[in-house]
Amino acid sequence: MSLFDWFANRRKAEPISKERQEREIADGLWSKCSECSVLTYTKDLRANQMVCLDCGHHLRIYSDERVRQLIDPGTWKLLDEALQPVDALKFRDRKSYSDRLREMQDRTGLSDAVQTGLGQLEGLPLGLGVMDFRFMGGSMGSVVGEKLTRLIERSTRERLPVVIVCASGGARMQEGMLSLMQMAKISGALERHRESRLLYVPVLTHPTTGGVTASFAMLGDVILAEPKVTIGFAGRRVVEQTLREKLPDEFQTSEYLLAHGFVDAIVPRTQLKRTLAQLIRLHQPYPPSHFVHVPDSLSRHAMNPDYVSETNSAS
Question: What CATH number did the domain enclosing 183 receive?
């Protein structure tokens, strides 16, 4: 046996561990679909907005990537970056809440679980909030509530539509009642935005649950969702134990909610920017130049039934 054959046989005999497989694709050139396990060139996957080219599965993306996908280059202006969460309740479980916050901030580079700002989408100005599931499961604490409220209030003053991309496990338990109060605060700001006859569109991504679902995620003029998204208030097991019956397999998916009227449309990520642009354009009032000027004399004639009948007979 040659030395080459010996090495070849030894390599075949060695089991390929999961850790070794992950090391081989961890260089960033290739990405593995969590649904169908197909390897895709990362550059091609990003060009397709992190949607698997083979099975159409929507891979999870975070706030920075979402902003790049939706906002025109050079138009994004972050708001309220300096807001920082505090441990008002001195909460502690396995570690203190303060330590968890520092750990999350170091890991993600974010101050909290949402980014808010103003920008343009296909040339259309809007206020955009994007929740980030990396930061404590996208949980809604006081900073998340304050940043979204300020975004909505500024958009109301500047008469801008608002889009919020939701991805959250719900209210943040480390802040107790302070977290739950954010539901009412954001909802109040959205009501004032609605009274100003301005558009609000929530985009539900995986997952959207808990207090976020129970408040601003379901208060949109048009509610959009990505395909196969988990959407709900309580967890599936809790609902089954409460109702004491088995739930359908597709329960709490965007497709199930669409069929039952809780979601207006399921929009693939590759079509989301275009769909939002269409909604904003449809909602925008026409500027005065778009209206046709009708002469006063014609207006007076139009009010006369005899003139209308004569015109119809002549035509």
Answer: 3.90.226.10
